[in-house]
Amino acid sequence: MYERVLEGYEKVLGPEHTSTLNAANNLGILYVDQGRHNEAETMYKRALKGKEKAWGPEHTSTLDTVNNLGILYAYQGDTRRLR
């Protein structure tokens, strides 16, 4: 369902719309739960780049995605990327 939402938002709203970026972030959460870490990282980075552009680095939605990416890195034991 998350993939369907993301595809629909991309088509209707465009890839940089904040709703599309939120869908990408949510898909990243699902991928983490499924153990699909590389795909999760791709979704988080996509969402983060767009959110930083749309809202800036200090917006709470941007920071939510930063947090999700940090959780992924911590889960993987990749402490060098936690800084």
UniProtKB/TrEMBL annotation:
Question: Which keywords accompany this UniProt record?
Answer: TPR repeat
Q: Could you tell me which residues the TPR repeats occupy?
A: 21-54
Asked whether the UniProt record includes Nucleus among its keywords, one would answer no
Q: Which Gene3D superfamilies match?
A: Tetratricopeptide repeat domain
Q: Which Pfam families match?
A: TPR_12 (PF13424)
SUPFAM superfamilies the UniProt entry points to: TPR-like
* PANTHER family found in the cross-reference section: AAA+ ATPASE DOMAIN-CONTAINING PROTEIN-RELATED (PTHR46082:SF6), ATP/GTP-BINDING PROTEIN-RELATED (PTHR46082)
What name has this protein been given in UniProt? Beta transducin-like protein het-e4s
